[in-house]
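User: Predict the structure for this protein chain, please.
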Amino acid sequence: MPRLTPEHRAWIDEAVRRVEADSNRSADTHLHVLPLPEAARSSGPEVELYLKDESVHPTGSLKHRLARSLFLYALCNGWLHAGATVVEASSGSTAVSEAYFARLLGLPFVAVMPRSTSPEKVALIEWYGGRCHFVDSAGQVYDEARRLAAECGGHYLDQFTYAERATDWRGNNNIAEAIFAQMAAEPHPIPSWIVVSAGTGGTSATIGRYLHYRRHPTRLLVADPEGSAFYDGWEADTSTATGPGSRIEGIGRPRIEPSFVGGVVDEMTRVPDAASIATMRWVSARLGRDVGASTGTNVWAALGAIEQMRAAGESGSIVTLLCDGGDRYTTTYYSDAWVADQGIDLAPYLAALATYDETGELPL
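Assistant: Here is the predicted structure, written as structure tokens:
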């Protein structure tokens, strides 16, 4: 760890200024009403569904917030210094955003990621000046990132440990505070549910803590994809659950990550990969632009929460996240050939969503 010399202190001050200036140049992300089928709106209690559009960040995803927080956390702890190589373990989008901030500070960046990461994300990391170091499986990224950082005398940002503590969950324009500010003039300004998925667990931790801190009655629903360990760990109240890993990039993990805080989660649901991809395409058609598969995971879970509310005669609002755009997945989730090669059958879920469009009722 570098000593806090006057030169190092001056470098940290300038680095923090650059990161904060970048934040000041970026307005908050938009909150969209996702138009639900007319049949769903014309019968039963009124429930509005909102998408917090994180794809409009400078690096195109929710992970821009995390990367900014991780860099500020490392800088303010004195862990980064001029010329140090920054290393991260990532399935893609976090590394894209971190490559952006490393370039902003003039630091080399290496992303350790599975070979299955989409080519579009790899190209973005390299465009920002980062280097990609591939491993065979998601479970190998942690030790390899730690090894590389030690080998080159750099710093391992370790998003999976520090995501839940790098962001100020009390406010300071975090995503939870922004949601409630943007909902203030809506018909149901206090959401009944906020629905998110977990990659590091940092976003669900920030939102859940904020709900408790502000004493909001809003419930937090975490949607977990196939193969992820989070759902099983939460169900069994254990931190030792494992899984094979997720095929939905950016969310789900093969282990319970240190940043996942199950105690702030009201409910969890497991979403099949076919449901995530089918709903991704359904949302894209309704918005007129492509979204990523993690957005499909979120919206499928949110539609289930809407059905529960309507069955209970409850009106209100639900907020979920549009995590990133679909341009990163043209060769994977938007490719019928890739989907077929993965053995994923979209037909039942596409049919369920077609029924929802026609009748306003979603066969879950």
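The chain has two domains: 24-61+169-359, 63-164.
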